Q: What sequence folds into this?
């Protein structure tokens, strides 16, 4: 190879060459003295530049970092209330305890707010999700942590999808699967969300997360875990409006959305009410409203294992519809508390494409047809 | 793909953004204002690929904001140099400020592009990320860094030598 140029040498020192390029360069360096000298010089510049740049840092007075504008959420008020309560309790006890003891009461009360997860859990706290020292963390995030009271596992590091986030861990601020199950007290049906395959957090004590071993009946694998079989009668619950964050939680750590569109509204529905979905699981519905597209809804669900086996043929059919989106008029199931938007939808014809990817069932509905619909589908990530 | 909340982005990236902006501008107050502006923009349009986006916006803001803030910045820098530090001796403070000033002067001798690439590398970006943030071709990053590092070091050595000569007199 020709002599090495500066750029190559720096890329080599930065670890940015491919293994093949490295081999070739090192082979050349072994026989070329001038290039070795260049490499040494490059190494020197790199090291010295690395030492100089931090000299530009100016110590800034430590103060709690706050977002310039904050949405006022319930959780912020809850946090504020908790702080007031903690301080109030400490202050009220002063006469009885004396100032020092009161201060330690405040300290104890405040501790759950500032560092809830690490105390409770042996699991490695995800690097980006562990609350840093209190002064540095914005309030709303703290509040959400405080809401998830003692006994919950720390958020399991979820592998980042393709967000290019260097840290890799904690794509979203999400608790482990067991945490989610324990939180759902309002649900009509109780699901055991399957633990994310790559989850690193050990099972929280409250909910058994270890996948149950499959047993075979007549050669057919049957999932005998009782958690998702014990629903009782399948009931149709009214669609409930939720936040995007909560939707991510319910889906087990990640959600698929239409690239480039802003979600207007997110709801959770029972699978019973969604055509083609696993009736035993809930469905997350994301609404989009765009002037040129009209109303678009994207339904998604993590269907149960038995659903997959049962409907494998049905989904093969649906998968083919990716190429030629089936034109199906979807009628929403009769609901006593239909959301206003669903009623609107009932009034106009809707086209639908349904597919599965990566263990997620997806269904896209809009007034668009054919290629436009397929293009929209391609934007779902 | 999941859009993260701005709170999450803030917690994760604000320290790095602020540090990079301080290094770039030499003015902590201005850097804080710019950093806040970066996240205000993220609030309005949450990015799907946050790191390159946030840093690109930060660097753009510095460039746009440059002329107006220069006079303000200089005044503030003088004030900062005078404010008392609690942990260092006056000599240490003087030395640190002088070194900072010298590195800043050396950095100022680089082209805008070389400066940006150098600062992004110092924030732990790899070549792909630098390319995504600056819009440069990945193949050009090595050469850019080579030139930037060389010029920074040689400029600093030159300035340092000058200072040494002045003190010796």
A:
């Amino acid at each position: 190879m020709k002599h090495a140029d500066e750029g190559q040498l720096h890329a080599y020192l930065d670890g940015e060459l491919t293994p093949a390029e490295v081999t070739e360069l090192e082979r050349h360096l072994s026989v070329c003295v001038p290039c070795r000298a260049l490499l040494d010089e490059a190494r020197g510049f790199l090291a010295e530049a690395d030492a100089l740049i931090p000299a530009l840092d100016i110590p800034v007075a430590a103060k709690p970092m706050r977002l310039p504008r904050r949405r006022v959420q319930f959780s912020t008020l809850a946090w504020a209330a908790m702080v007031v309560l903690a301080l109030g309790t400490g202050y009220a006890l002063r006469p009885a305890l004396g100032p020092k003891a009161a201060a330690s009461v405040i300290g104890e009360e405040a501790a759950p707010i500032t560092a809830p997860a690490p105390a409770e859990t042996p699991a490695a706290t995800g690097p980006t999700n562990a609350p840093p020292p209190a002064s540095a963390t914005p309030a709303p995030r703290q509040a959400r942590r405080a809401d998830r009271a003692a006994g919950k596992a720390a958020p399991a590091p979820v592998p980042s999808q393709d967000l290019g986030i260097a840290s890799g861990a904690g794509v979203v601020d999400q608790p482990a699967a067991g945490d989610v199950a324990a939180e759902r007290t309002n649900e009509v049906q109780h699901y055991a969300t399957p633990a994310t395959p790559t989850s690193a957090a050990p099972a929280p004590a409250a909910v058994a997360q270890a996948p149950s071993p499959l047993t075979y009946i007549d050669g057919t694998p049957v999932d005998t875990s009782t958690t998702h079989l014990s629903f009782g009668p399948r009931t149709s619950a009214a669609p409930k409006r939720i936040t995007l964050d909560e939707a991510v939680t319910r889906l087990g750590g990640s959600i698929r959305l239409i690239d480039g569109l802003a979600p207007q509204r997110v709801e959770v529905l029972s699978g019973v009410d969604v055509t083609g979905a696993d009736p035993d699981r809930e469905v997350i519905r994301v609404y989009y409203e765009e002037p040129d597209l009209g109303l678009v809804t994207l339904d998604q669900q993590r269907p149960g294992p038995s659903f997959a086996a049962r409907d494998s043929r049905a989904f093969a059919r649906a998968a083919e519809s990716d190429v030629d989106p089936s034109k199906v008029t979807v009628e929403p199931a009769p609901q006593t508390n239909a959301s206003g938007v669903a009623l609107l939808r009932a009034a106009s014809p809707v086209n639908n494409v349904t597919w599965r990817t990566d263990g997620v069932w997806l269904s896209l509905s809009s007034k668009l047809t054919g290629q436009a619909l397929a293009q929209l589908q391609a934007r779902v990530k | 793909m999941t859009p993260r909340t701005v709170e999450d982005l803030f917690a994760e990236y604000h320290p790095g953004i602020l540090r990079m902006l301080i290094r770039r501008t030499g003015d902590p107050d201005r850097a804080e204002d710019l950093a806040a502006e970066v996240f205000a923009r993220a609030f309005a349009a949450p990015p799907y690929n946050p790191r390159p986006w946030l840093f690109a916006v930060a660097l753009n803001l510095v460039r746009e904001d440059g002329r107006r803030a220069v006079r303000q910045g200089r005044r503030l820098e003088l004030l900062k140099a005078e404010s008392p530090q609690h942990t260092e001796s006056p000599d240490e403070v003087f030395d640190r400020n002088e070194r900072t000033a010298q590195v800043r002067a050396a950095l100022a001798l680089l082209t805008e592009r070389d400066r940006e690439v150098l600062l992004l590398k110092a924030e732990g970006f790899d070549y792909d990320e630098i390319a995504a943030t600056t819009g440069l071709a990945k193949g050009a990053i090595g050469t850019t860094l080579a030139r930037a590092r060389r010029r920074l070091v040689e400029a600093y050595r030159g300035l340092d030598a000058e200072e040494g000569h002045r003190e010796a007199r």
